[in-house]
Fold this sequence. Notes:
alpha+beta
Amino acid sequence: MITGIGIDIVQVQRMRRWLNLPGLMERYFHPDELNAALVRGNSADLFYSARFAAKEAFGKALGTGFRGIALRDIVVANRQNGQPEIHVFGSALSELKKNGANKIHLSMTHERENAVAMVVLEVI
């Protein structure tokens, strides 16, 4: 049973501005995401944009937005085959448990100026 669906779009230019603000990325992204972005070089803005869209989509799927959730508790990673997935900890895990879902589906895409993510929460 599906318990929530969320979608979000982020303008890549927004992330380009954020990259120049000291401490902001550390506030929104888990250390694993920050380390993964380092190897992206010039495409770090796309990397962060898609992941921020995924975090926003997750909050929308919960129906709570980010209320009571630390964004660093939502980690977007890639499986060996490249498929993105969301791992939740702390405050995000607590909110997911309240939702009742035990499976998170994630799809992300980006182009030069926009990144989009969709999250489906499911009880299996």
